Prior knowledge:
Elements lengths: L2 H14 L3 H9 L7 H13 L2 H28 L11 E2 L5 H20 L5 H27 L2 E3 L5 E2 L1
Antiparallel strand pairs: 1-2, 2-3
Helix pairs in contact: 1-3, 2-3, 5-6
Bound molecules: zinc ion.
The site of zinc ion has 8 residues, from loops.
Amino acid sequence: MKSGQKDQNQAQKRILALTDHDLLAMLKAPAHEYTPFALDVAREELARRGGRETLEARISEQTVQQEAAAEKARLAISKGLCPRCEKSDIRRHSGCATPLVLAIAWIGFSVALPLLMPHPGAVGIAFLAFVYGTCGVLVLITATSALFGRHKCRACGHKWR
Ligand SMILES: [Zn+2]
């Protein structure tokens, strides 16, 4: 097989695998962006899928369906339901309240500690390091949880923010 032939086969495979939307976009693009061969393949594929109007109708129908699904999911979430199966058996993301409360308590304690221990010995310094270390870890947990925390549906296992 010549390399030109191989390139054409690869281009053909790519074009046949395009979504309706991307196929239309390719045919709407300036003609010089594609080889005549690629455009021929794209036109044949467009005809095979039912022509431009059929594809445009199908795409707008899909868009409407996607928007309806997104709206339904938003509504479910606002009602406290799983956006996928609409059951209410949800493990809520706590909003990281527990580590936050602990972190604030530890920070308060660690601020007060040097006042209680003006001349800490080796044990005192180790204890201070432990308190500050714990503070750091709790703040880190809080931040991570705030960034990546998810609600989870107990019924279907779906996770969302
Ligand atoms: Zn669910």
